[in-house]
Amino acid sequence: MPQADWLLLLLTPPGGQSGGRIRLWRTLRSLGAAALRDSTYLLPYSSNHEAALAEVADSLQAEGGEAQLLRICSRSASQESGFRTLFERDNDYQEWLHGFEQARREWIQLDPPTRLREYETWRHRLQELVSTDFFPAAAFDNTCATYLAAFRQDCPGHAAPNFETCELDRSPADSEPTPPEPAPAAAAQRPFDPADYQNRVWALPLCSDATILASAWLICRHIDSDAQLIWLADTDTPPSQAVRIGVPGAPFGGEYSAFADLCERFGLDKPLFARLDGLTAAIDSGDLSHPQAAGIVALLAGIRDVRPLTERSRAALQLFDWLADGA
C-alpha cells in the first residue's frame, strides 16, 4: 500500500464558548474528519480538504483559539493502513441499509408523490455518507445498488440519481503541488423546500434538551405550520411516515445538532436562528454563562414533566416564542 499525504489539524478552542466548540465539531463532522485524540483531527489530503481545514483554523484563531494545520505523510504501510481504518464506513452503510429497508416496507402503501419524497430524503442521507467515504469499497457499491434497484422498482418513470464520490489527490508532499481549488468548509447542499414538508408528522425524542425543543419550535413556526409533533421514548418506534429528528436513523439531527441541521437543510439563516443555536447548544453542554440560561434550564425541567404530550408541545412553542421575541 503506497504511503500518501494526510492533513492533521491541532486545535485549542477558546475557553467559555461551548456554542462555538459545538459548531466547530459539527463542521469537522460534516467534512468526515476522524478524531485521533481530543482536539486532533485527521483527513486524507486533497486540495479541497486543505482549503476547508484552513478555513476552520482561521475561524478558530479569529475567535481567540489556536490552530495548527499540518500536511504529513504516513511513514509506513502499516501506518497508512491504520489511518485508512479510521475512515471505514461499513458500519454506517449497514445502519443506513437497515433503516432504509425497514422504512421501505411501509412505502408501498403511500401515494407516488409521497413515496418519491421519502426516497429523496433517504437519497440525501446516503449522499452525505458517500461524500465522506474517501476509500470506497464493496459496502459503497452494494448500498448504492440496493437504493437504485429499489428506486427503479418503486418510482417508475423517474430518473435514477447518481451518487457523487469524493476525489482525493493522494500525491506525496514532496511532489509538485497542485493549485488549491476553492472549497467551503462544508459541502454545499441544495436547501430542502419547506413546501415538500407540509402537514407532516415529526417525531422527536422525549427529552428536555434545549436543542430538541428549539427544533420543535423551528419546525412549527418556520417550516411546517401544520406540523403534528410526537414525542418518542427510547423504546418507541416512530410511525413509518414520520419525519424523524435527533433519533436513530433520523435524516435530520443527531445528538445535539438537530436545530442547526434543520437550519442548514432548509436554508434558514436569520441571525435569530444563529443566536438560538448558540444559546441552546451552550445550555445542553452545561454552559450557564448566558444571562437567561439558568431561567431557561428551570423552564426546560418543567416542560419535561408536562402531560399530556400535546401540552408539552404547546409549552415548548411558548418558551421559544418568548425567547424569539426577546432576542
From TrEMBL:
Pfam families: ChrB_C, ChrB_N. Residues 213-323 form the ChrB C-terminal domain. Signal peptide: none annotated. It comes from the Bacteria. Residues 21-98 form the ChrB N-terminal domain. InterPro entries: ChrB_C (IPR018634), ChrB_N (IPR046858). Residues 167-190 are annotated as: Disordered. This is Chromate resistance protein.
